[in-house]
Specification:
By secondary structure, the chain is α+β, with helices and mostly antiparallel strands. It has two helices and 25 strands. Strands 16, 18, 20, 22, 24 and 25 form a six-stranded mixed sheet that branches. It starts with a helix and ends with a helix.
Length: 392
């Protein structure tokens, strides 16, 4: 074997050995060499710029296909396909953009194929977490009474906080969990300014024909995902303690003007009620203030008086609100209906100005007639005077 053939043999042997090593280590001659994306923490509904680098170390040019899958909790959220040509010993950068529509952890899977083949040449997986520029938020829920009659509405105090700079709509879902019937759900949306909190009383029906310990779950949802949740518990009892409420059945207030009224609460039970509070459901808690905030104890057959200072915003339109007054302690609950009528003087219909308009029109016509008559008389005098001078 001469020297030239020896070197050819050595080169061919080295190539086979290298190929074997590459194959044994799972490295494909056509592979995805790098994946990068920006920003590293993408925001929901903003573009995420992705760059995939593919290299061809094979002995021929290739027509390739890059398939991309985006997963969220095992579900394929989106997919895309890029076809391209790659020459021998060359690299190619494949750029594309992705818009995430949900917050949380995602996976992005890249699979490399020949265009006319099903064999997977290489694959890579990256993990990324998308966030929202809203918030952060907080939520808490609490039931006022520990015991309530089955099927009766339970007042729940819901407090939400938006610690972010930007205001947004808050999607709330409250679920009363039942064992002998479908869960009871109440879902609503309201707007919450940045750097602000909201506290409201939400009255939700409870499970019928059930007793024992139950729970109420409050969830704050964004992009169809539960972001935060809070839970509270209460007992359903067929013979709960009650509280008697004596107050107005109808109350009229003027929007923007303060109004105070009293509510008497009586304990008809044979035991002492603890932590007695008066709350109002179906209107924002920012509209009213109750004094005192709570009464530590109310003895049997004793009556307490709460003062409610109410002021509807000046922008509130004239309308009627069927609201509920709740007196709640740790052991008992009382409820009384109240029709709240709001009058907005700025929205009152103005009296018709039609008679005044008629008077103004007729007055204008009269003044015109008098002015014309005066002008005619004066002109007549000037003509007579001119004729006299001419004749003289």
């Amino acid at each position: 074997m001469n020297g030239k053939n020896f070197f050819l043999f050595l080169f061919f042997f080295s190539f086979l050995l290298f190929s074997q090593i590459v194959s044994s280590q799972g490295i494909s001659p056509i592979r995805i060499s790098d994946v990068s994306y920006y920003p590293k923490i993408p925001k929901v509904f903003d573009d995420m710029n992705v760059t995939v680098e593919v290299e061809n170390n094979f002995d021929r040019e290739e027509n390739l296909k890059l398939v991309t899958l985006v997963l969220k909790e095992g579900t394929v959220m989106s997919s895309s396909e890029n076809n391209f040509f790659l020459d021998i010993n060359k690299r190619k950068t494949v750029p594309f953009s992705h818009t995430t529509e949900d917050i949380g952890e995602h996976q992005m899977i890249f699979k490399l194929y020949r265009i006319n083949g099903n064999e997977e040449l290489d694959s890579k997986i990256i993990n990324f977490t998308s966030i929202s520029d809203l918030g952060p938020f907080d939520i808490s829920i609490a039931s006022l009474p520990d015991n309530i009659q089955p099927g009766m509405k339970i007042p729940l105090i819901l407090r939400t906080t938006n610690n972010g700079q930007q205001g947004t709509d808050i999607d709330i879902k409250i679920t009363i969990r039942c064992s002998k019937q479908p869960n009871i759900e109440n879902q609503f949306v309201f707007y919450l300014d940045g750097k602000n909190s909201d506290q409201r009383v939400v009255a939700v029906p409870t499970c019928e024909k059930e007793e024992g310990l139950h729970s109420a779950l409050a969830e704050m949802k964004f992009y169809n995902k539960t972001l935060l949740s809070s839970i509270t518990q209460f007992y359903l009892s067929k013979n709960p303690l009650e509280i008697l409420i004596d107050s107005y059945q109808m109350l009229t207030v003027t929007s923007g003007q303060p109004k105070s009224f009293d509510v008497s609460v009586m304990n008809p039970n044979n035991l002492t009620l603890d932590n007695l509070r008066l709350i109002i459901a179906d209107i924002p808690s920012s509209w009213y203030e109750v004094k005192p905030a709570f009464i530590k104890q109310l003895q049997p057959n004793e009556t307490a008086v709460f003062i409610v200072n109410l002021q509807a915003p000046e922008s509130t339109k004239s309308t009627s609100y069927p609201i509920s007054l709740y007196a709640a302690s740790s052991q008992a609950l009382g409820k009384a209906p109240l029709e709240l009528r709001i009058s907005n003087t700025g929205n009152l219909a103005k009296p018709s100005s039609f008679p005044t308009t008629i008077l103004i029109v007729f007055a204008g016509i009269g003044i015109g007639i008098v002015g014309a008559w005066y002008w005619f008389k004066r002109r007549r005098k000037e003509d007579v005077f001119l004729d006299y001078e001419l004749s003289g």
